[in-house]
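Quick note —
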Amino acid sequence: MASDIISQYLTKSSCIFAIFHRTADRPLFKIYKEPRLASKQGAYSVLSQNGRILKRGKSLAQVLKVFDRKRFHTVDAE
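Predicted structure written out below.
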């Protein structure tokens, strides 16, 4: 089962990466980058399917720690 990642640009200063199980489904997770929040809460945040904020932080590596390594695996495109 491969996950699809789609990048959507909202404005010139923010970006969303949506992670799907299948492209026809709703996104499982969304990773937001909003630089205007960098000094307050952190520029990056991970949201669940229902919109709940799972993790916020100043770096992408910090917020990606919310994902369990055993649950996800990488798929090489050939």
